[in-house]
Amino acid sequence: MWRLATCSVVFLLLRSLTALPWPLLCAATCALYLASGGRTFLGIFFKTIRRDVHAAGVLLKVKLNVRRNLKLNNTIPKIFHEVVQRHPDKIALIFEGTGVAWSFRDLDEFSNRVANCFREQGFRTGDVVALFMESRSEYVGLWLGMAKIGVEVALINFNLRMDALAHCINISRAKAIVFGGELNTALKEIHTLLGKSISLYCCGEPDSSEVLPGTENLDHLLEATSSRPPPPLQSRGFTDRLFYIYTSGTTGMPKAAIVVHSRYYRMAALVYYGFRMRTDDIVYDCLPLYHSAGNIVGIGQCLLHGLTVVIRRKFSASRFWDDCVKYRCTIVQYIGEICRYLLSQPERAVERQHRVRMALGNGLRPSIWEDFTSRFHIPQVAEFYGATECNCSLGNFDNKVGACGFNSRILPFVYPIRLVKVNEDTMELVRGADGVCIPCKPGEAGQLVGRIVQSDPLRRFDGYVNETATTKKVAQDVFKKGDAAYLSGDVLVMDEYGYMYFRDRTGDTFRWKGENVSTTEVEGTLSRILGMTDVVVYGVEVPGAEGKAGMAAIADPNHQINLETFYTDLEVALPQYARPIFLRLLPAVSKTGTFKFQKTDMRKEGFDPRNIKDKLYLLDQKQRTYIQLDEELFRSIQSGKRKL
């Protein structure tokens, strides 16, 4: 009787909130209710129905918009043109470096000049041009203008140098490089590694007196070019390539991910509708524009929805809140460790004088989440999970502390993503007797996967320029026999209400003393103990030891860490198995341009003092501190005499 009554309540509530047909609604409600355990399901239902209905509405709206754009054969430049027509004189972009504001008409005309200029230079649909420049308004106008004539742009990380820089340009097969004058020297260093036929265009004053022979002054070319719209492009559609964004390169050389027009739209639109952004919002975008968070999640709100975006050349923790107050920003973007860097700044009155209502980004550690929101008076954290190439993005639409998103426990089939079990040592997918991957239950950590449907712009996977790299990210027989799914490479855990929490990237979690150690969680704890210092945690192999021993590389440029106090704090903050066995104190921790730590090389170097110049320390439980690791102690560990 109880089950029947509850099922009736569930049915009526779903009917009032959705437009599903009666028979389907009845069957779905009863089946889900009975399968999920009666009263437990009812509790989940009332806790999550408002969240799930909002998310379902967002998915439906984006899907209908995508279908419309497909039918109209739209592109990002065409959608932008509609925005320009609506409010040509509204401010589109403000560049913090100069304070110069561009209206939507200004941005449109600049991008038209770019389109006409490169068309006159002989570039055609399908050609690739590499863009190597620090963030500013012209950056947006350059790739947008080239998209108007079907030229695909490779967005090159402006922090790269030498081999990595040459690699990214060469694998894109670019016919030309447009570079900022501030990066002239970096380009000169690699000119012998590039193809001889590649054309060069310099934007802005070069950082040295000479540029490479044959380099064109792009500013002069654009001044002499018409700002009228280029001839209509008929051969480009919503599923064609727009540009390439490179992975951060935390493990090996960066890979060029393909971004098509529909993917750009989907990523920006899901954020806009999911987090209830408004057309009068002003976004503070201090993230690099060669990255999807800065260029799609941020700039996309300007190009597709008509918001004003403030661009900062590079992130500055000391100037962050001054800029927000000056430009009356209502939304700020973050990624990686930015929030921790802001917390490490001395308190100032200006950090409470802003109008910011939302912090939008990914990578805010749960250990500092509430400290960040309370100190800076941020009402909403719009944390999301995603990657440039992934088809299983998540969003924390209802401000749940610590979560990077959710999936519905009521209607899980609406959004086909899943956490699947992996081997804890090898991180390989675990399959059942039928050969299909085993889904995780609430509380079980697993790899996030998303079903691939190439005919659906919301579910497709476009991969990378390198076919081998693309193949490695796809698995077969994941949800059911015969299907294909995208492998995120990230380990998450879901609670009983469907909220997802980021654990680690595949390979970062390691086992020690029979326990799984999450590097992300340990890094957050150590950084907090040490006053927001940069910390990287990873596992290293020790002869004769089961699993991997934890090692923490800590930025300590001024030699201020008190190891005895540090040990005492660790006893309180971490279980014994999670406390780092080894410490490596170094002047600075290497990071990518998007504030992700690079630990691959350090993991390979291990804890050998003969190969590492930094100071190394070993955990000594008897002395309740860390002692210096010299060559003699290292040999003792290697031989097995010294037990860990």
Strand order of the largest sheet: 2-1-11-10-12-13-14-15
Distance between the termini: 59 Å
Query: Which class of secondary structure composition applies to the elements?
Result: alpha/beta
- What is the average per-residue confidence, as pLDDT, rounded to a whole number? 90
Shape: globular
**Unreliable stretches covering 5 or more consecutive residues:** 1-6
Helix content: 25-40%
Count all strands and give the number.
Answer: 28
Range of strand content:
15-25%
> With helices defined by DSSP (H or I, 4 residues minimum), what is the helix count?
19
What does this 3D model show about the protein?
- By secondary structure, this protein is α/β, with parallel strands linked by helices.
- About 35% of the residues lie in helices and about 20% in strands.
- The protein is built from 19 helices and 28 strands.
- The strands form 5 sheets. The protein has an 8-stranded mixed β-sheet. Strands 7-6-5-3-4-8-9 form a 7-stranded mixed β-sheet.
- Helix 1 crosses helix 2 (about 20-35), helix 1 (about 1-15) runs parallel beside helix 3 and helix 3 (about 40-70) packs across helix 10.
- The longest helix is centred in the N-terminal third of the chain and has 33 residues, at about 40-70.
- It starts with a helix and ends in a 5-residue tail after the last helix.
- Mean pLDDT is about 90; it is low at about 1-5.
